[in-house]
Specification:
Bound molecules: NADP nicotinamide-adenine-dinucleotide phosphate
Strand content: 5-15%
Number of domains: 1
Distance between the termini: 34 Å
Strand order of the largest sheet: 3-2-1-4-5-6-7
Structural class: alpha/beta
CATH class: Alpha Beta
Number of helices: 7
CATH superfamily: NAD(P)-binding Rossmann-like Domain
Oligomer: single chain
CATH architecture: 3-Layer(aba) Sandwich
Shape: globular
Largest sheet: 7 strands, parallel
Order of helices and strands: EHEHEHEHHEHEHE
CATH topology: Rossmann fold
Amino acid sequence: MPTALITGASRGLGLELARQYCADGWRVIATARSPDAAPELQALDQQYPSLHVHALDVADFAAIDALARALKGQPIDVLLNNAGVFGPKAKAENDPRQEFGHMDYDMWAGLFRTNAMAPMKMAEAFVDNVAASTQKKIVTITSSVGSITQANGRTIAYRTSKSAANMLMRNLSFDLKPRGIITAAFCPGWVKTRMGGDAAPLEAPDAMESLRRVIDDLTPDTSGQFWLYDGEIIPW
Ligand SMILES: NC(=O)c1ccc[n+]([C@@H]2O[C@H](COP(=O)([O-])OP(=O)(O)OC[C@H]3O[C@@H](n4cnc5c(N)ncnc54)[C@H](OP(=O)(O)O)[C@@H]3O)[C@@H](O)[C@H]2O)c1
């Protein structure tokens, strides 16, 4: 039975990914900042003996190391960096702190830590677990708004943190190739979650089913690409 480790599984896309991998018979290590405050994850935990829940704030790098020590020797087929933060929303929340002229630099650094640096730290901490698995995949959920080709302004903190995460996954595809590890960056589409909002056209179950199919099909030859959830390649 393959194993997936998913960060940010308390709600939204991470929770849906955990649900689908469990339903498919995978062993799932689901991490969440505060599992006690995640009733849907707890319900899943009751339903599936193959689900293992751990508390993890991905911005706490010592905590990542501690979890890696606890999971030492356990193969992880798919390491899924899903946890992410959007930051202040100028339109929806009338909060311009990531717009030109109003940048909150501490907030920006915080977004970078969670969205871009934590996936690197997770890869460093769990690389032996991934290398010991059958599938050997490290996947980070980034966003098409991190595409430099498609950039059209605004939400600078979020966009730059996701561009950095894309750059990370591209580079790791080279650095980890000798160990047989495949990497990928994914835009999940615009999906109804707390981050995506109610106006999003996609439902999480459909988008994540499609995204998981693309993960299933990743090969060493397609490592280091930036994918849309439906298998299209997104320009960097
Ligand atoms: N939904 C979309 O349309 C969309 C589009 C493009 C990209 N994405 C990306 O998809 C991923 C999932 O987003 P979502 O739509 O599911 O958003 P969401 O509903 O806001 O969920 C975000 C998840 O990330 C977790 N998280 C945030 N900071 C964390 C930290 N420091 N440590 C651990 N967990 C943390 C949250 O945990 P708490 O419950 O503890 O806050 C929550 O589980 C994100 O990386 C996001 O940027 C989403």
